[in-house]
Amino acid sequence: GRGLGLSSALGLIRGNHAGLQVLNRPGEGMTFRIHLAVERRAAPNLQAQVSPVSGEHRAVLVVDDEPVLRQVLAEAISECYGCKVFEAADGIEAIEVFRAHRDVIGLVLMDCVMPRMRGPEAFDEMRRIRPGILGILMSGFSEEVGVELATRHGFATLLKKPFRFKVLSNLMAELQFGTEGAEFPQGPPSSGRDDK
């Protein structure tokens, strides 16, 4: 990567009104603690906003070379959607995981710039394995990548880092992730819209 993982993770954490504590102990390493705000509303509201996914392709593959961001995202998706989440640290590992689980993965959340293989090229290979797979390209480089790059490689849209989980959740609902017919039979829909 290019060292943006922690800043992206911090953006996600702050965007959800949480905090990050970094403890550095010489000779012992570093510990990262995420402090989540206590929600004053009743917990069932979350279940009303997000439905558990169902259908044949119900798993998600999260691909990012920054472990903190990847794990936070994977845990949030798993808890909110009640689905299996696979993780990969780069494009080559993502292709291997996708190949092994292509029958259950319904959505790929892919970072753009990673070591060994970039996200767009890895997603091209996944589309050769199973055409129509849903994908969202994530990037912290707004000037380097755009919606045009994402759609050229078959992604449904581009998600700018840092982002709030609600933005991702809205995108997943918009793509009808987890419902029958959620794949792209003839390519992705147009994504010329503004993210809120």
Largest sheet entry: 5 strands, parallel
Binned, the helix content reads 25-40%
**What fraction of the residues are assigned to beta strands by DSSP?**
15-25%
What structural category do the secondary elements indicate? alpha/beta
Rg computed from alpha carbons, rounded to a whole number of angstroms: 17 Å
Order of helices and strands: HEEHEHEHEHEHEH
Report how far the terminal alpha carbons are from each other.
Answer: 27 Å
Mean pLDDT: 75
Shape: globular
| Spatial arrangement of strands, main beta sheet | 4-3-5-6-7
User: How many beta-strand runs?
Assistant: 7
Q: What is the count of DSSP helices, taking H or I runs of 4+ residues?
A: 7
Low-pLDDT residue spans: 40-54, 179-196
